[in-house]
């Protein structure tokens, strides 16, 4: 029974029964796209540090861009469906799932949640179709885990225009994007009280993006540094909703992206498991296939158990998101532990492949390298531990100044 699961042989507890036929059909449709378009090319794309922009229109046709949003050309899929799509994409490569996340969960979500109707009409249909690309500028060279300390500023002059100055770093897709969501301080720097978001067409004078190169992770994707030099925007460029005032605006978008990661990394882990399971059946040492040895079977068993638990966690959070909604600690539990599990199992799979595992003929080390980034972005382990810790104790420990005794 378990081996007939749409998740494959890793499913040893009948996870298959948790999902509807419609949900499984969507996952298999995305898997076909990955098998036909991504798998035959990913080693070359990764080796040459190429992000394949030619596949974006097909992603749009599949409804993968902003797929959890409703209207404006978006697919309006459930959170669980989005999660299943994310894990299928990341089974192909984390960098390509990250594109869908940056486009849909960050840039499109910011406009959808906080934008004006004019901003939504202008950008969301084009982005959903893959005709326009977006990026999300929050992190800075000196403000990663502490976005409240950002130094990018926006000042309104006598004409009512906004003038933006500052730098952003580790911004996915910025050199390719048509529009950037830039978060900036509009008042007192520090504390995040004056943070607001701006819709910035990337052809605006003073906007410059440069790709970060010589990466050892996420090589089939693009991360950039943005420099903003007297970028002049009309008053209508600000995200006007009250929900976008302060850091709650970007954090709402970050939690959308973190949710996708909870599922996505399970795809990387499952693909690593499938790779080494096949290898264990084919590779012969000392007259027997590797799979005939007890040490191999115990490792495979431990991998399967860990991945099954990760899927259960993702499923619980997904169903919760589709019903009464999630909380930040809930998202942090999923992102923290599933990233830990995925990177450990990718590393274990690489070890079981021996010397062959360091080549791009096999996926686990590529997954492990990518997961180093996935584990870091959208909140490090420590950020998520402290989010959970704050929920448990009622005390915020992100900075010494938070605790007053």
Strand segment tally: 11
Number of domains: 3
CATH fold-level label of the largest domain: Butyryl-CoA Dehydrogenase, subunit A, domain 3
Quickly give the CATH architecture of the largest domain: Up-down Bundle
Structural class comes to alpha+beta
Q: List the uncertain runs.
A: 401-405
What does this 3D model show about the protein?
This protein has 405 residues and is α+β, with helices and mostly antiparallel strands. It has 3 domains: 2-128, Orthogonal Bundle (Butyryl-Coa Dehydrogenase, subunit A, domain 1); 134-246, Beta Barrel (Butyryl-CoA Dehydrogenase, subunit A, domain 2); 249-395, Butyryl-CoA Dehydrogenase, subunit A, domain 3. It is 47% helix and 14% strand. It has 11 helices and 11 strands. It has helices at 21-38, 42-47, 56-61, 79-92, 94-114, 117-128, 248-282, 294-322, 328-352, 364-376, 381-393; strands spanning 70-71, 74-75, 134-137, 153-156, 162-172, 179-185, 195-201, 207-211, 223-233, 284-285, 288-289. The chain has a 4-stranded antiparallel beta sheet with strand order 4-5-9-8, with helices on one face. Strands 3-6-7 form a 3-stranded mixed beta sheet. A two-stranded antiparallel sheet has the order 1-2. The protein is globular. It is an enzyme of class 1 (oxidoreductase). It comes from Neomicrococcus aestuarii. Residues 20-130 form the Acyl-CoA dehydrogenase/oxidase N-terminal domain.
